[in-house]
Amino acid sequence: MHEKLEQVRPADIEKRSFEIITEELRQKGKVLTPGTEPIVKRCIHTSADFDYADNLVFSQGAVEKALEALRQGAPVVTDTQMGKAGINKRKLAQYGSQVYCFMLDEDVAGMAAERGCTRACASMDKAAEMGLNGIFAIGNAPTALVRLCELIEAGKLKPKLIIAVPVGFVNVVQAKEMILDLKDVPCIVARGRKGGSNIAACICNALLYMMEE
Amino acid sequence: MHEKLEQVRPADIEKRSFEIITEELRQKGKVLTPGTEPIVKRCIHTSADFDYADNLVFSQGAVEKALEALRQGAPVVTDTQMGKAGINKRKLAQYGSQVYCFMLDEDVAGMAAERGCTRACASMDKAAEMGLNGIFAIGNAPTALVRLCELIEAGKLKPKLIIAVPVGFVNVVQAKEMILDLKDVPCIVARGRKGGSNIAACICNALLYMMEE
Question: Which of A67, A84, B42, B194 is 20 to 30 Å apart from B56, CA to CA?
Answer without folding.
Answer: A84
